[in-house]
Amino acid sequence: MRVEVREVTEEEFDGAAGVAARSLSHLFTHVGDDPVDQLSAAYAAYTQIPWGTHLTVAAFAGRFVVAMAKASVPEMCWCDDIETAPEPADENEAGIMAYRRFLRPYHPDEPHWWFGPVGVEPGVQRRGLGTSVMRAALELIRARGGGPVVLESEPDVAGFYRRLGFDDVVRARDPDGIELIFQLLIV
User: At the N or C end, where does the chain have fewer CB atoms within 10 A?
Assistant: First the structure.
């Protein structure tokens, strides 16, 4: 498979968000046990990320996104301005708000980059696509001044981020009871 790794355009972002939704829908347990409900909630969450608040790098096979990594730019993390966020309109937004509140104590007070989501299309995982998009994104972060970079990962994928230079900071359970490891890299 021939793949091009590059920053996505605004028009391409929905394709990247779709990869995130398909690869990470299992994390949306706050909407129930039905995989269709979880996938729908993941699509709703990831496609509504405001453009201009993040850097997104993707691996493209032709015109199709097969892997993606989104990093919120400093001062645009989900933790920022949590106190002034509007009240949730539905169950999915309430779950996302609970997650945002959960993140805050584990993120640096100073401006930082925050990775989330990072995903690889199911069926083409373990081919180096995630590594390629993460390395490209970290290079762009470095070129844009660097700084602290944080993310949270499930224990079974934390080693992937350690190989990229991230250090474990703390383990915690999110509001849905999912165990996560917060990781940090200074770029």
Answer: N
Which two structure tokens, joined as six digits, stand for 111? Answer: 């401006």
CA distance 21 to 139: 25
* pLDDT tens, position by position, 119-140: 999 999 999 999 999 999 999 9
Q: Is 128 left (phi over 0), alpha (psi -120 to 50) or beta?
A: left
Query: Per-residue pLDDT tens for 96-112?
Result: 788 888 888 888 888 99
Q: What is the domain range of residue 181? A: 4-186
pLDDT > 80? residue 79: no
CA distance 125 to 103: 27
**Domain at 51, CATH number:** 3.40.630.30
Cα gap 30→93, rounded to integer Å: 10
| Number of structural domains the chain divides into | 1
Report the predicted TM-score, pTM, of the whole model to 2 decimal places: 0.89
